[in-house]
Design goal:
CATH topology of the largest domain: DNA primase, PRIM domain
Number of domains: 4
Number of helices: 17
Strand order of the largest sheet: 1-2-14-11-12-13
Oligomer: single chain
Number of strands: 18
Distance between the termini: 48 Å
Largest sheet: 6 strands, mixed
Mean pLDDT: 88
Radius of gyration: 30 Å
CATH architecture of the largest domain: Alpha-Beta Complex
Strand content: 15-25%
Length: 507
């Protein structure tokens, strides 16, 4: 069972995700916690503990080292009585090879599985279209990036299903909306997984409507009972009408209002309100509002850019998501910009819009349009509120570097029979399983040659705080000197036993 589970949900092997749950909302539903990435290999024990219900549950990063993945997922973040059966019926009506799971928080994880690894960009593009047609265009899509920038970059993880599989709340549903066991899921997976060729040809069929040349959000919204957002939908339609009928768009607005809001609980907007909106938009060159509800729930930006009267050729502020903080002495960050990975050197690139634009332009060869400082601040606040902290690679912090330098200094400069007096010449005196050395020699001669960036006083503090060094005063000859003392390091042997090779008969 474990082998099968690993085969299906495998992803990046050098790191995995963890979530420490802190509390629930008052209604007992939404789990709140702190998420972070561990830079540790995903060993079999982690998978075994997951299905056996041993905390913490396992989060897997779907994109691997080759920027490929064997699965993708639409994470529909809903917590209050989510109707999974209705979602499954919608999927079946669209003839999509998707399996729905109940997520940890009670929402839905909609998975697409492939027989072998496919390009992350292909998986993501297809699932973005899927999320839009399902009416959840604002949902998170995994993989969240199409490329990992470096070994430093770990991507974003998804909490896996079937935690504590014998008594789980994270189960898959069958075609009828019934919860199924992990073994039943394996059978369903065999039925639903598709080849790379099938994924390439997978058609996300959209409804035929009068808006098939415009924004997909209007196309989808007008096929459903519109419950809210009349003002915002009218605004979106006005921008479409102005582009399609630049000479007589004004006469189209009220017709749309009565046609599509006739069954709205509040009915169509009043004529005077419509006339006010027409007057406001007349003579102005305004953009679509793609990131506002309810449009964002039906947004298919890539498709929209191909439509004659969509956002084609327009500069639209990108969707920012999934901020990661690499916990170095001077942290840097990764953020997804419309699903593409961007590295930000420090916090100022999040605080200053100009610097953010520069980073995106340098790395993605496109510049986000400027927005009002207030709007940009809101985008960044949203990112920071859900920042994911990632431990740095081993040996990357200044403390780790200093410890390495200290060990190297003490083991390399401990000569046989070295005395206290030898410390004056930059050597290390070892006695009673303690290394003794003069800090000034270590700092000015050894660290300086290695371009150590910290100042004298700061380094001395780090030695005491992190390296377990103590300062003492001893006699060296006729002088009293301050020396540093640290527990003896085990010196690594340079000797080895050569392998014995036995001659083999060639003929």
């Amino acid at each position: 069972m474990i082998d099968k589970f690993i085969q299906i949900f495998s992803g990046l092997e050098r790191a995995h995700g963890c979530t420490h749950v802190e509390k629930k909302n008052a209604d007992g539903t939404k789990l709140k916690g702190k998420s972070f990435v561990k830079r540790e290999r995903v060993v079999e024990l982690l998978w075994t503990n997951h299905v056996n219900g041993i905390e913490p549950s396992l989060g897997i990063i779907p994109i691997n080292e080759d920027n490929k993945c064997r699965w993708g997922c639409v994470d529909i973040d809903s917590y209050a009585g989510f109707d999974h059966k209705k979602l499954i019926q919608k999927i079946l009506s669209c003839n999509l090879p998707l399996i729905v799971f109940r997520s940890k928080s009670g929402g839905a994880h909609v998975f697409l599985f492939t027989t072998v690894a496919v390009d992350a960009s292909l998986m993501r593009d297809k699932l973005l279209s899927v999320s839009a047609i399902l009416g959840h265009g604002g949902a998170e899509v995994f993989p969240k990036q199409v490329e990992l920038k470096s070994q430093d970059d770990t991507g974003n993880f998804l909490n896996l299903p079937y935690f504590n599989c014998k008594n789980t709340t994270r189960y898959a549903f069958d075609k009828n909306g019934n919860a199924i066991t992990i073994d039943e899921f394996f059978l369903l997976h065999n039925e639903y997984k598709i080849t790379p060729e099938q994924l390439e040809k997978l058609e996300i069929k959209r409804p035929q409507s009068e808006f098939s040349d415009g924004p997909p959000c209007l196309e989808s919204l007008t096929q459903t009972d519109i419950k809210d957002g009349r003002d915002r939908i009218i605004y979106q339609y006005i921008q479409y009408a102005k582009r399609k009928w630049p000479e007589n768009w004004q006469g189209k607005i009220n017709k749309f209002n009565y046609k599509y809001f006739d069954k709205h609980k509040d009915g169509p907007l009043e004529d005077k309100i419509i006339q006010g909106k027409i007057k406001f938009n007349d003579g102005k060159d305004l953009s679509f509002k793609c990131n506002e509800e309810p449009m964002c729930n039906h947004c298919d930006k890539k498709l929209c850019m191909t439509r004659s009267f969509g956002i084609k050729g327009e500069s639209v502020f990108p969707v920012l998501s999934d901020l990661q903080k690499i916990k170095l002495d001077k942290p840097h960050y990764y953020v997804n910009v419309d699903g593409e990975r961007v590295k930000l050197e420090d916090i100022t690139f999040l605080l200053e819009q100009r610097l953010f634009q520069r980073a995106v332009a340098e790395q993605l060869n496109k510049r986000p349009p400027a927005v009002k400082p207030k709007d940009f601040g809101q985008y960044i606040d949203g990112l920071l509120a859900n920042v994911e902290e990632v431990d740095p690679p081993k040996g990357a912090t200044k403390v780790e570097q200093l410890l390495d330098y200290l060990e190297e200094y003490c083991t390399d400069r401990t000569g046989t029979g070295a005395t206290k007096e030898d410390m004056e010449r930059g050597n290390v005196w070892t006695a009673e399983k303690k290394h003794h050395f003069i800090f000034q020699q270590f700092f000015h001669q050894y660290l300086a040659r290695r371009k150590w960036p910290e100042k004298y006083a700061e380094t001395l503090q780090m030695m005491a705080e992190y390296c377990k060094c103590k300062e003492t005063r001893i006699s060296i000859g006729k002088k009293r000197r301050n020396v540093m003392v640290v527990d003896e390091f085990e010196k690594q042997s340079d000797t080895y036993t050569p392998k014995e090779f036995k001659p083999k008969d060639v003929f």
